[in-house]
Design brief:
Number of strands: 17
Largest sheet: 5 strands, antiparallel
Number of helices: 11
Order of helices and strands: HHHEEHEEEHEEHEEEHHEHEEHEEHEE
Structural class: alpha+beta
Radius of gyration: 49 Å
Shape: flat
Strand order of the largest sheet: 2-1-5-4-3
């Protein structure tokens, strides 16, 4: 069967492989075609930029030589005739601005001298083009105007053109028409400077963004020269831009080509959307899928004929299947009957386990009470004999022993009632740190008697919980007393209580440095009447009562080994709001039996 399906799947698989190979071939051809087109367009745009530069390159040189423009430098103050001459030259040449600056960088004459944003009297000595021209070189700089806030290419020459400069002649060329021509052509083109800042773009939203994140020293240089007038200069892509690779800008992928302009370190970039490089992919895959569908239809038609022949055989076998189905129904019913019997057996086993637990408890109670009762009988008989002999002193001693025995039996029955039915306690919102302090006051005499140190490690923040404070105090008193008894045998016995809040729970850890609890006894430590105390008089009900109280409050109590020695009891309680909505306060825990 597997070979048959393999043979059926082989033709469409080969068709898909052939389509994949053709797609890769045509993708490469499309990319090569786009790269050739990009190279041609980049060459054209480069020549356009250089032509614009060469068109106005001579102008600052001519202004620097003309005394009509530089007359203000000799007088050291603005001259109207120089302003009018520069205004006329700007109109005739088509440049945006013409102006002359003195040795300090202050503008003394400008073609826009009559505008509200006139450059006359303004100082631009911080601009790199001024510094280059004043040092005798040709100044070239693209920047946003510090006064007009309009971008342009600044070309500067020293005046006079020979000898020591006394000023600088500047031409500002508007490069906006280039951008407009790029946008009208419907192509995605932009130019970046030596620092990777986009200053010309057919996409206005990309202007004054960067090809990569700028180093801090470059940003400081740009801010010092005010080249881009405080623009944000954020990257257009989260990946560095490289030649001839896919570039993602604002979530859109482009095929990227670039070329050096040969002016001021500028680079031209030509982008083509990636979807245009995949024009041949859709027809190829459409043809491949169509052929696969035709093949599938043919296979299904042939298979349909075969299925019709098989259906007749299936109808003949239907009678046998019905009989088999009837037997299966009977077997299912029988299985359900057996499952019900098993469930009843499990319930009976559970009842037996509970009865066994009751029997074990009864045996423990009988054991605990039989010895005091036997002693009582002995002391009563002895007292009678001593009274008959008139030995009242010895009879009084026996009565004291009888009173001690009845007190022990009363204490045992009291503990049994606490284990069976813990007393009532009202649920309220409390700070568990207060419960710890109350418990500490109760057990303080026990610690002073045993000489054990008690260390409380409580957080500064409240440990808020909605619980029963009396039950919490009862648990803590039991645990702290047990810790004091365990550490009493040590030379420097110590019990530590640490409180913390984790993941909506309040955790109280009581650790001691006593002999600890053997690992094989930790599972039994919370059983009724089980105690590790050899001679302290414990009845083995304190921990049993404590774990039941903790579980009734929605928490838990566990024991682990301490490091390097001793035991750690961990009490976990739900924090404020755990398990209850804020608008549904907990009810009081009602008394189950009077103690």
């Amino acid at each position: 069967m597997s070979k048959r399906w393999l043979y059926l799947a082989l033709p469409p698989f080969l068709l898909v492989v052939a389509a994949f190979v053709l797609v890769q071939l045509f993708l490469e051809l499309d990319r090569d075609s786009i790269d050739r087109k990009a190279a041609e367009r980049l060459t054209l745009y480069r020549q356009t930029i250089l032509g614009e530069y060469q068109k106005y390159r001579y102008l600052p040189y001519m202004i620097a030589r003309d005394p009509r423009a530089t007359s203000a430098l000799g007088l050291g103050q603005p001259v109207e005739s120089a302003n009018r001459f520069l205004e006329e030259m700007a109109e005739n040449s088509g440049v945006e601005l013409l102006y002359v600056m003195n040795a300090e960088g202050t503008t003394l004459a400008a073609s826009n001298w009559q505008d509200s944003l006139s450059l006359v009297g303004r100082n631009y000595g911080f601009r790199p083009y001024f510094k280059s021209a004043y040092q005798g070189r040709e100044g070239q700089f693209f920047a946003i105007g510090a006064t007009s806030d309009e971008p342009g290419l600044f070309l500067a020459r020293p005046t006079p053109v020979t000898g020591k400069p006394v000023g600088v002649a500047v031409v500002k060329v508007d490069m906006g028409p280039l951008e407009e021509a790029w946008a009208e052509g419907g192509e995605t083109v932009f130019a970046s400077d030596a620092n990777g800042v986009i200053f010309l773009s057919s996409q206005p939203e990309w202007r004054y963004r960067t090809l990569a994140a700028l180093p801090e020293e470059v940003r400081r240089t740009i801010e010092a020269t005010r080249q881009y007038a405080g623009r944000d200069l954020t990257p257009v892509s989260d990946r560095p831009v490289q030649a001839k690779q896919q570039l993602v800008i604002d979530g859109r992928a482009f095929r990227h080509n670039s070329a050096d302009v040969g002016l001021l370190g500028w680079t031209l970039h030509f982008l083509v959307p990636v979807e245009e490089t995949r024009k041949s992919v859709l027809p190829i895959w459409a043809a491949a899928i169509t052929l696969c569908l035709i093949y599938a239809v043919i296979v299904l038609v042939l298979r349909g004929r075969r299925l019709r022949k098989a259906s007749a055989l299936l109808r003949q076998e239907s009678a046998g299947l019905k009989e088999l189905n009837t037997r299966l129904v009977e077997e299912i019913q029988e299985r359900r009957r057996v499952e019900r019997e098993l469930l009843e057996a499990q319930r009976g086993l559970a009842r037996s386990n509970r009865l066994a637990a009751v029997g074990e408890m009864s045996a423990a109670v009988v054991h605990e009470l039989s010895q005091p009762l036997a002693a009582l009988r002995m002391f009563v008989a002895g007292t009678r004999k001593f009274l008959e002999k008139g030995d009242t002193d010895t009879a009084a001693e026996n009565l004291d022993e009888i009173d001690s025995l009845q007190m022990r039996m009363a204490h045992l029955t009291q503990e049994l009632k606490r284990f069976a039915r813990p007393g009532e306690s009202r649920i309220e919102k409390i700070d568990l740190r207060e419960s710890v302090r109350v418990a500490e006051k109760i057990v303080r005499p026990r610690f002073e008697e045993t000489g054990v140190t008690l260390d409380l490690d409580l957080p500064d923040a409240p440990l808020e919980a909605e619980t029963a404070p009396l039950r919490i105090e009862q648990i803590l008193v039991n645990l702290l007393r047990n810790g004091a008894d365990a550490a009493a045998s040590e030379e420097q016995g110590k019990v530590t209580l640490r409180a913390d809040q984790q993941e909506g729970q309040v955790i109280l850890r009581i650790s001691d440095n006593g002999p600890g609890i053997p690992e094989d006894l930790r599972e039994r430590i919370f059983d009724p009447f089980f105690s590790t105390k050899a001679s302290s008089g414990g009845m083995g009900l304190g921990l049993a009562i404590s774990i039941r109280l903790a579980e009734d409050l929605g928490g838990g109590l566990s024991v682990t080994a301490n490091t390097p020695k001793g035991a750690v009891f961990e009490l976990r309680l739900p924090g404020l709001g755990e398990g209850h909505a804020d608008n549904d306060p907990l009810p009081d825990l009602k008394s189950e039996a009077a103690e």
